[in-house]
Design brief:
By secondary structure, the chain is α+β, with helices and mostly antiparallel strands. The chain has four helices and four strands; from the N terminus they run ααβαββαβ.
């Protein structure tokens, strides 16, 4: 038994593979398929996570800080693909605040652009406290 006959004008030799037409059309380019919406809460989490990655910034997770005690806290206003960021951080003493703020702005903006395609339209940073390296943070129960 042989396979189906080739289309008119095509010739194939025995054992030669014939091209198989795609069963469905190629998907459209990602930008034309629809719309992606990232919530303000998700962008806030991205900002806080990216800020905690900057050397010298104290992460609540790494120290056990409560939200009210410092660490990294962000307020974010997202409109379309732009975000205004207000960031409150604790830093390790003795840190150069201007250097940390420069690094924060660059790193957070890069992470938002890479991960969410969101551009930073404004970026305010406040340093809430300095934390001694390896010092106990929060309540200590004895």
């Amino acid at each position: 038994m042989s396979g189906p006959a080739p289309d008119a004008g095509e010739s194939f030799q025995a054992g030669e593979r014939r091209p198989v037409p795609p069963s469905r059309p190629e998907p459209a380019e990602p930008g034309t398929r629809g719309r992606l919406t990232i919530s303000g809460t998700a962008v806030r989490h991205l900002v806080e996570t990216a800020a905690a990655e900057v050397p010298g910034v104290v992460s609540k997770r790494s120290t056990g800080m409560l939200r009210s005690e410092g660490g990294v806290n962000a307020n974010v206003l997202v409109e379309h693909d732009r975000a205004r960021v207000r960031l409150n951080v604790a830093v390790i003493y003795p840190a150069s605040v201007p250097t940390i703020v420069r690094n924060l702005r660059a790193h957070v903006a890069a992470r938002l652009a890479d991960l969410a395609d969101v551009r930073v339209a404004g970026f305010d940073v406040s340093v809430s406290t300095f934390v001694l390296p390896h010092a106990p943070v929060g309540r200590v129960l004895e």
